[in-house]
Amino acid sequence: MNFDVRDGVETWTRTFSGKSFSSVQSEGRGASEHLLCERFGPLNFAMALVYKEAQIHLVLRRWTAFGVPMPLWLGPQSTAHESAIDEKFRFDVEIGHPMVGLIVRYRGWLDPVDQKSHTSTQ
Questions:
Q1: Any idea what the Cα angle at residue 87 is, between residues 107 and 49, rounded to 5°?
Q2: In degrees rounded to 5, what are phi and psi of residue 34?
Q3: How many angstroms from the chain centroid is the CA of residue 38?
């Protein structure tokens, strides 16, 4: 996993089993103001950052497909949290859907090295 930051927008690239995909994270606007938005192609997910038990939990509040608002019950379900331990950014993400089951689960940390971040995942 790695990420690039430009003009307040983060591009995250993840690789699983030799296949890579990217998402773009940015500050929400309009109906998603005060939320963190993550876009995967035509899908955009707006999440609240909820601090609980020394972790930041990402809680889905709304999502759109091709710019069209979709009902929450139709969207994916996730358990995702981040924390800082031993000067490392740690993450644990699980995404699934009631119709298809588990889609992806990954966890690990980012180590800051020479202004760049490197990652280790489990």
A1: 60
A2: 75, 10
A3: 6
Burial 7-45 (b: 16+ CB within 10 A, else e): eeeeeeebeeeeeeeebebbebeeebeebbbbbeeeebb
Q: For residue 93, is it left (φ>0), alpha (ψ between -120 and 50) or beta?
A: beta
Listing DSSP states for 40-103 in one string gives ETTEEEEEEEEEETTEEEEEEEEEEETTEEE-GGGS-EEEEEEEEETTEEEEEEEEEETTTEEE
Contact 4, 11 (CB under 8 A): yes
Q: Read off the pLDDT of each residue in 28-33 and give the average, rounded to a whole number.
A: 93
The pTM of the full predicted model, rounded to 2 decimals, is 0.79
* Lookup: tokens for 3: 């990420």
Residue 28 has pLDDT above 90, yes or no: yes
Of 8, 3, 33, whose CA–CA distance to 20 is shortest?
Answer: 3
